[in-house]
Amino acid sequence: MAIRNIVTEGDEILTKVCRPVEKFDGKLGQLLDDMYETMQEANGVGLAAPQVGIRRRIVVIDVGEGPIELMNPEILRESEEMDEDTEGCLSFPGKYGLVKRPRSVTVRAQDRDGNLFELEGEGLLARAFCHEIDHLDGVLFITRVSRMLSQEELIEILSKREREEDE
């Protein structure tokens, strides 16, 4: 496995629509392993292939429940209920904003062997699905932000969350 460079704001690949995965082979497996390791090293919860310079419909996610790998993902259903919450992106280091996303979504994708499956996600997982699939369509979180947050606001939000978790 290897840590890959994360593409940052301004790189054209971040605004391009990605091509489908057609080959499910050892090269794909290596890329998935590298992406997961890169995401963990950067303390992220999700990473899409264009963020490591590859224009393919590939996503890795881990919101604390173990790795999820999605090839050619699509959102089948999303709840009408929406939540506005803090969001950041490994390709936009230090930038955070408030983004409204569906509270729950159902995703269909393929695994590393090409098998189709469906997953339902709520809360942070639903947010991660939406954020990472947006990357595959060249859509960046900064275009969905209702308001960017200052460092002071971010620290206040994170402190409040920690206090709530301790209660």
From TrEMBL:
Keyword match Plastid: no
GO BP annotations, alphabetical order: translation
Keywords (A to Z) from UniProt: Hydrolase, Iron, Metal-binding, Protein biosynthesis
Residues annotated as the enzyme's active site: 132
Residue numbers binding Fe cation: 89, 131, 135
Family affiliation: Belongs to the polypeptide deformylase family.
Protein name, as recorded: Peptide deformylase
Species this protein is from: Yeguia hominis
